[in-house]
Amino acid sequence: MARKLTVYLRLMRPANIVTSVADVLAGIAIAGYFYHLNFNTTSFYPVVLLCLSTMGLYGGGIVFNDVFDAELDKVERPERAIPSGAVTLREATFLGAFLLLWGIGFAFSYSNHAGALAVAIAFFALLYNKVSKHYSFVGPLNMGICRGLNLLLGISISVPMLTEFYYLAIFPVIYIFSITMISQGEVHGGNKRNLYIGGVLYAIVICAIAYYAIAQGKSETFIVLLPFIWLIYRPLANAIKDPIGPNIGRAVKAGVINLILMDAAWAAAFGAMWAALFIVCLLPVSIRFAKVFAVT
Predict the structure, then answer these.
(1) How many Cα atoms sit within 13 Å of 189 on the Cβ side?
(2) CA-wise closest residue to 96 among 125, 136, 131
(3) Ramachandran region, residue 77 (left: φ > 0; alpha: ψ -120 to 50; beta: rest)
(4) For residues 148 and 285, what is the distance between their CA atoms, to the nearest angstrom?
(5) For this UniProt entry, which segments traverse the membrane (predicted)?
(6) Do 66 and 80 form a contact (C-beta atoms < 8 A)?
(7) What confidence tens digit (pLDDT) does each residue in 86-112 have?
(8) Nearest CA-CA partner of 175 in 213, 206, 196, 134
């Protein structure tokens, strides 16, 4: 039983799930929910519901990635859970469906707005896994939409704030578009053009965070933002210098895990510094998981 649970965790890629929780917490911070939060069970109940929702949605989406790639992985990644025989295709499909329904259920248990966003996330996750990831432009865009909706899932904790800051979803779209573009050369090696594009897209997101931090007088944001810049650009520079599969894989891994710092920077830019510090604390958790379970 313990071995089977470990296999399920391999399918779900827990290091990535932690980053999805960071997305939602950043959205909640942007919505201003943490400003006047009372430290009691009732106040944190909506936060817990939305975090549980994103865990299910992201975990389910990742599981279906392996389900739809089962045949391809027999050739390119035979070590993965399904082609290695550690779990059957049927079991993986059941797990993915359960997790997506889990995510949708917890979102609707908070509000219809959150539930609608959860349904949209599940739809775009399945669309990406089944169809769009096979296209060089549409695939990265689709994956970015999933992250943008995930940020909105957090902001939906306050409907008025959702209508005011909905456009901020574009920045996770840009960031994930960048990572997905970079990852296209992870198996067989890539070309420098995609890597340079990734670097430019990273810069757009960084400038947006810096703009909000400066506009709102939150200079403490740079305590988080500067390490974020270093941690994503260093491996990317190495990949540009030598665009072989392993280097690109490390750049992708850095981009995914350090989403947590990006989310922390957003929280800080909107004045929720203590929430930003809590999000930062998720980074070592994700890194620990990444040492045990694959990220990509």
Answers:
(1) 4
(2) 125
(3) beta
(4) 23
(5) 12-35, 47-68, 114-129, 141-159, 165-183, 195-215, 260-287
(6) yes
(7) 888 899 999 999 999 999 999 999 999
(8) 206
Length of the chain: 296
* 3: its two tokens: 């071995």
Structure tokens of 95?
A: 């797990």
Dist CA 47 CA 33 (whole Å): 9
The CA distance from 248 to 204, in Å, is: 21
Q: Check: CB of residue 147 under 8 Å from CB of residue 23.
A: yes
Q: Cα separation of 265 and 273, whole Å?
A: 9
18 is written with which tokens?
Answer: 């932690």
Reported in sequence order, the residue ranges of the chain that DSSP labels E, i.e. its strands, are none
Q: Which of 262, 137, 260 is nearest to 207 (CA)?
A: 262
Q: What superfamily would CATH give domain 10-292?
A: UbiA prenyltransferase (1.10.357.140)
Among 54, 60, 57, 127, CA closest to 92:
60
